[in-house]
Amino acid sequence: MMTDDLTVPRTLRAVGIAGSLRAGSYNQLLLDNVIRLSPDELEIEPFTRLAEIPPFNEDDARQGGPAVVVELRDAVRAADALIIATPEYNYGVPGVLKNALDWISIPPGNSGLEGKVVALMGASPSILGTARAQSQLRQSFVFTQSHVVNHPEVFVTKAHTRFENGTLTDPGATKLIGQLLNNTVKLVRTLRSADGNAPVPGAVR
Q1: Where are the beta strands (DSSP E) in the chain?
Q2: Strand partners, 148
Q3: Contact at 8 Å (CB) between 81 and 113?
Q4: Alpha carbon distance 54, 51 (integer Å)
Q5: Torsion on CA atoms 173, 175, 177, 182, rounded to nearest 10
Q6: What residues does each domain of the chain span?
Q7: Residue (of 139, 126, 45) closest to 88 by Cα position
Q8: Distance CA 146, CA 128 (A)
Q9: Phi/psi-derived region of residue 133, left when phi > 0, alpha when psi is between -120 and 50, beta in every other case
Q10: What percent of the chain has pLDDT over 90?
Q11: How far is CA 60 from the centre of its chain?
């Protein structure tokens, strides 16, 4: 018996970025756990070439940028959402992460970030987590008219005590991550439905 495919929400796709280059990075561990915790309806593909992106140069950007930038921009543009696990350096966003976002924020009106749903989180040994870095990222996404998921905020504090053999052991953080991912899916479906172009099956109304 045939089924009506329109009743089954399609699997959404997201690009995941950990904003640290350090081996054993807490935020890479966090992103790895997020991928494992992702609901069935959301597939997260990590971008692993952050270290290869050169410093932003507007002259090169006018030509589209280097191949690794084109790859990231195209991946984000084609995805339904972007998920970022950011460290906090000197009370702010790591340079390598901000650099990558600067590259894919252009051209204005047709960037990889235009209207994209973005979920933020971060891990830090600090008792404040990455609150300041996430706040700065939210400001950056105003320019690109991206839709940052507002709640819940995920700050993995005292990160050096939160992982065991690569697994996030904090049940509170795990619960918040699940809620954030579910809210990311809901926001994507709601926005797609509101577009009126092609209503997304299963959208939250």
Answers
A1: 12-18, 42-46, 81-85, 117-123, 147-148, 154-156, 163-164, 167-168
A2: 118
A3: no
A4: 8
A5: -170
A6: 10-193
A7: 126
A8: 25
A9: alpha
A10: 82
A11: 25
Amino acid sitting at position 53: I
| Pairing of β 167-168 and β 163-164 | antiparallel
End-to-end CA distance of the chain: 30
For residue 128, the surrounding DSSP H or E stretch is none
Q: What is the pLDDT of residue 64?
A: 83
pTM beyond 0.70: the answer is yes
User: For 10-193, which CATH class?
Assistant: alpha beta
Residue 108: pLDDT band (50, 70, 90) is confident
What is the C-alpha separation between 162 and 139, in angstroms, rounded? Answer: 28
Look up residue 53 and give its two tokens.
């992106």
Mode of pairing for the β-strands spanning 81-85 and 147-148:
unpaired
Closest CA to 125 of 26, 28, 29: 26
> Largest alpha-carbon pair distance within the chain?
60
Phi, psi torsion values for 179, nearest 5 degrees? -65, -40
Question: Running DSSP on this structure, what letter comes out for residue 56?
Answer: P
DSSP state letter for 21:
-
Length of the chain: 205
Across 56-60, 99-103, 126-130, 191-195, least confident range? 191-195
Phi, psi of 13 (to 5 degrees): -120, 140
How sure is the predictor about 199, in pLDDT bands with cuts at 50, 70 and 90? Answer: very low
